[in-house]
Amino acid sequence: MMCFLICGAVFVVAAYVYHEIVVVGQRCTSSVKLHGKTAIVTGSNTGIGKRTAVDLAKRGARVIMACRSRERGEAALEDVKRESGSSNVVFMPLDLASLKSVRNFAENFLKSEARLDLLINNAGLFCEGRTQDGFGMMFGVNHLGHFLLTALLLDRLKESGSSRVVNVSSTAHNVGRIDFDCLNKHKALGLGSSMLAQLQIYSDSKLCNVLFTHELNKRLKGTNVTCYSLHPGAISIDFDRNMSRLLVMVLSPIFWFFLKTPEQGAQTTLHCALQPGLEPLSGRYFSNCTARNLYAKARDDATAKKLWELSERMCGLQ
Ligand SMILES: NC(=O)c1ccc[n+]([C@@H]2O[C@H](COP(=O)([O-])OP(=O)(O)OC[C@H]3O[C@@H](n4cnc5c(N)ncnc54)[C@H](OP(=O)(O)O)[C@@H]3O)[C@@H](O)[C@H]2O)c1
């Protein structure tokens, strides 16, 4: 009996230590205040984006919640105001699956906001389908919409002093590849609809985020804008949005053990956005609040440039 109790206690302590060190990981330690600064967070009505918005608002930033659904965006706006204690938070509609919506958002933003200090390209999805402009959904939303958004806001970022662009990617980019033939022919990173094919396309879109950051950094040389990409960790997304209460109760301990909360998942985004002195690491990829080395394909100059030029053509910027 004694032996059983000791083994049980050792297991609980080991599980706790594993959870704290491996799952939860590092936190953003910056105490930077953001009064007078403006931040955009895409996809901030839920998950990591919402937690990022709360943190930035608590630090005094004016936070623009750029979300596709007015209903979900405005409901989240009230939560973010309440949780941060700040009323300097606004909702602006942005559907990254529509280049017209991206252009409208940028136009509204540039008309109504004098500065932009932080652009957090956080929104992302994993699903089949096509955007309003006929692009593969994951390519269109996870990469192309953010590409156009960044391009349209770049001058405002440059005018605002030392500003940062943070692109939320994923460790899945490691298995990504960019099939330019498929992109040119079909406006998509891949065509399959099996789960495996969709996972591949998601990973490809996340590789686009890393390559975009790589090329953006080169094009920002000589300006005071810097950029970063990152993996937030494996996060328990707002799973009770679509699950029964019973399933949520059963799965909660398992999710607790293996997955970060969205608040923990926001830490690397916040580190990249706020850590003082990070500028020499512009263009780099972060995980667990630490700069990581990339495989050659994720820092390949020629691929990054080709993707940039193709993205410009696809967005009508050339
Ligand atoms: N969760 C993870 O374990 C994990 C791991 C690695 C990387 N990531 C990356 O982290 C980022 C945030 O993910 P999350 O876990 O917080 O996911 P989430 O809870 O599903 O939130 C995704 C956000 O993106 C928004 N979005 C989707 N399509 C959009 C569109 N067309 N236009 C504008 N916004 C759109 C969603 O809006 P709606 O609410 O309207 O759908 C939502 O606000 C994503 O880029 C994701 O790829 C997540």
Automatic annotation (TrEMBL):
The keyword Cell membrane does not apply. Gene3D superfamilies: NAD(P)-binding Rossmann-like Domain. InterPro entries: NAD(P)-bd_dom_sf, SDR_fam. Keywords: Oxidoreductase, Signal. The keyword Signal applies. It comes from the Eukaryota. Pfam families: adh_short. Residues 1-15 form the signal peptide. GO terms for molecular function: oxidoreductase activity. Belongs to the short-chain dehydrogenases/reductases (SDR) family. This is Dehydrogenase/reductase (SDR family) member 13b.1.
